[in-house]
Amino acid sequence: MRHDEMIGKVQALARLPDRKTAERAAHAVVSTLAERLPSGLARHVAAQLPPDMAAAMVEAAGPSAGTDPGTAGERFGLTAFVGRVAARAGTDEDTALRDAAAVLEVLDAALAPELTDRVAGALPADIRELLPVGRAEPDTGRPG
Asked: Is the Cβ–Cβ distance between 133 and 59 less than 8 Å?
C-alpha cells in the first residue's frame, strides 16, 4: 500500500480533519508499535511500509534494530501505549486510542497476513484489543 493511500485510510477511519493530522497519528502509532515489538519483527514490518513510515518505525526500534535481530521490545501495556501515542501525536488519550485502532486496522490491511499474525502474537492482550476483530483473538490452531 502506498503512503498516500495509507494516510487517506487512516484519516477516514479515525475521522481526522486533515492529512497532516492523519500522518502525525500514523507516525506516532508505528513508532510506539516499534518500541513494543521485538526488533527483528519491527524491521520486517518496516520493510513492508512506505519509506517515511518505515524510517519512523526503524528509528523508534532503536540503534540495535539494525544489528541485533533478537532484541526484545519494551514491555508495556495499553495505558503506556496510548500515552506514548498521545504524546507523539500531540493529542489526548481518547483521541490517541481511536487513532491507534485506525492505524492498526490500516496496517492489518497493508501487511502480509502472516506478518500481522506475528505482530498480534507479540502484543499483550490489552493492546491486541485495538487490532481488527479477526486479529484480536490469539490463534488457537483450531478452525473458526
From this structure: no
